[in-house]
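G.,

No rush on this.
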Amino acid sequence: MLRRAPESAYSLHDDRDIGSDVLRMQVPIITDKSAFLALPADSLDREAFNRFASDYIERTSDDTWFELDDLTQRFERDFEYFFLEPGYLYYFDTNKLHTLINAGNTARITLA
């Protein structure tokens, strides 16, 4: 089970450390329209994104938070955003960069 707190996000990351022979799938259990998966396009300027994202890292926890207006204004063509409906099985290549942003008021609970 994975829990993403309200108004928090993972940093832009990949899951290559779990091994190339491991597939990660997920079923959102509790979520709302304000929680979404963000996958960067190949055109993403990663250095610019890292400089931008470093402004939003909360030093007191492992969570990252993005000002969503700033994120979409600066990088709207560089990311694709996906809302994952609860109760469905999803797969995407977690060896590639991604993040999950929960901009809602409720914790997001996922079976992974």
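When you get to it, here's the other one too:
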Amino acid sequence: MPLTTAALVQGVLAAGKDYDLDLNPDLTPYITAADSMIPQLQQCAARRGISMSDAQWAVVETWLAAHLYCMSDQTYRARSTSKASGQFGGDWGLNLDGTKYGQNAVMFDVSGCLNAYGKRLVARAAWLGKNRSTQIPVEERASPQ
């Protein structure tokens, strides 16, 4: 059962800017996705010895759901109507840094687990060549005939 509601998520979204009350888009998928992450975050917090109340987790879930909603349909940062231009707001960073809502969700999670969860996607590289002891120096290689 989600800790947050559509009304709470709408309350944190900037009405008329990030959320159109006239269109009233369904926030259920974003709330469900945010709610599915909370148990993992709670387990992480428990491993770190940090206790957060259900009310605190509800705040994190609310801001996280708002973040997921905004990431699915990038919000405007600036608009102009005379020549139809606009700037979208999702260029602050990757993952949770991509919106002010994600940044706030990280701030409200005093365990630090959401921040770690958002940064767990790290590029890694591995050397697939020979190890140093079996490499042949360039000057000792046979030249093609």
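The two ends are 72 Å apart (CA to CA). The chain has a mean pLDDT of 81.

Enjoy the weekend,
O.
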